[in-house]
From TrEMBL:
A GO molecular function held by the record: tyrosine phenol-lyase activity
NCBIfam families found in the cross-reference section: PRK13238.1, tyr_phenol_ly
Any one biological process term the GO annotation gives: tyrosine metabolic process
Subunit structure: Homotetramer.
Gene that encodes it: tpl
Protein name according to UniProt: Tyrosine phenol-lyase
Amino acid sequence: MSEKHVVTMGQQFGRRSWAEPWKIKMVEPIKTMSPEERQRAIEEAGYNTFLLRSEDVYIDLLTDSGTSAMSDRQWAALMLGDEAYAGSRNFYDLEEAIRTYYGYKYIVPTHQGRGAEHLISQVAIEPGQYVPGNMYFTTTKLHQELAGGKFVDVIIDEAHDPASLHPFKGNIDLAKLEDLIQRVGPEKIAYVSVAGTVNMAGGQPISMENIKAVRALTDKYGIRVYLDATRMMENAYFIQEREPGYEDKSVAEILKEFCSYTDGAWMSAKKDNLVNIGGWLALNHEDHFEAARNLVVVYEGLHTYGGMAGRDMAALAIGIQEAVQDDYVRARVGQVRYLGELLTDWGIPIVQPIGGHAIFLDARKIYEHIPQDQFPAQALAAHIYADSGVRGMERGVVSAGRNPETGEHNYPKLELVRLTIPRRVYTQAHMDVVAESVKAVFDRRHEAKGLRMVYEPKYLRFFQARFEPVA
């Protein structure tokens, strides 16, 4: 959908309106609160939107993880859960679905994506090895570090520029990757960590041409490539839309081809696979599979359930089938794009091109007067909630954490607020409300003040840190 998704009187402007490829069968009431109640709630939460009660949130754009609406087929599948401790038939259905649509040989189920990240880090990383990748993700990087590895960012430079219109800002810079390999030696590279799409860059995709080139380069040095497949459906859609030669291929065909250039993948099924809980690790090499299947028994559960109930695996197998449907992916990305185009039309700076799962507000640009050590993105997320009850989240210096050697804040070039759209949950009217709230806060931007951190946990501080306004 490259055109603007305006549905009111669309035909008047020479185009046909579009609608979501589903209808609503069940509703969940949400409540609004007064401005005074919202201000009190964000203060009690320490200006951290993760610490708000969900019942105090009007439109929840904190994350797309586990927040999707399941289909009637998925809800029906919950009643067909085989809850046997070992050998559940639902595991074999899940295994077949992953092999069919992703193409990997061996499957290890986990309770969610974080469990799969932990397993691959433990079996594939030796202390002192490097893990190059196309920009870090918070939990992935932490698991790599806890296994003794060191993440190295080898994404193209355009990914760090919110205004760049590069169509594939998730691409790996092959020169950076090969320079690292030659500098430390191939044996010091645990694997190449590829994310599609790249969350921290604004939901930006990696091209098929780039992953082919990465495969060719790593084959030369005998290095494996592992994929964070969490949002690969959206990545496949962008390849279909933007890359020559793929416009007539289906999302399912593109997904399977992309995965064929990797040695395995970990998955947070709470995103693309349209379930509220679950994950998996898929591998093509028996050595890492045998090690992971052994470790999953220690950390997650038996290798035929891995922390999920049988009913969860049943819903997940169906979610995989539904998520590759072209009409669904087109509407999913289209809703994100609709919100982004509203904000762009009003001159509000966001990461461009608009990504697949979220709008990323450029907090550094919006709050130019707030220094980065006063957490402008954290402040912006809190101010949007106070204005309307819309909950987003910070993706900037708080998420980046501290340098483990110096103890100083890491200062990323991107200081963003992520407004993440759950799948099959909200309507276009909700997106209008969100856009109007962001504009109201943007119009008052010169009055805004920064924050100071008053509580900081040791790991993944953005989840639990607390703040207060600077004097």
